[in-house]
Specification:
Helix content is 55%, strand content 9%. It has helices spanning 11-19, 26-33, 43-57; strands at residues 2-4, 9-10. The protein is globular.
Amino acid sequence: MYVCICKGVTDQQIRDEVCKEGACSMREICLKLGVASQCGKCGNHAKQILQETLENHQ
């Protein structure tokens, strides 16, 4: 599912950044994928996916 329409980022891409690349903060997700860098409407949803993935990945 697309999370960020502006940058074309999916929930799976966010999960992959956490699980495969070791991202552990929104800052890292923003820098790598560009999430929440334009309109910002996706920020809360992206953060929720990040937190859920971190909890499940540990």
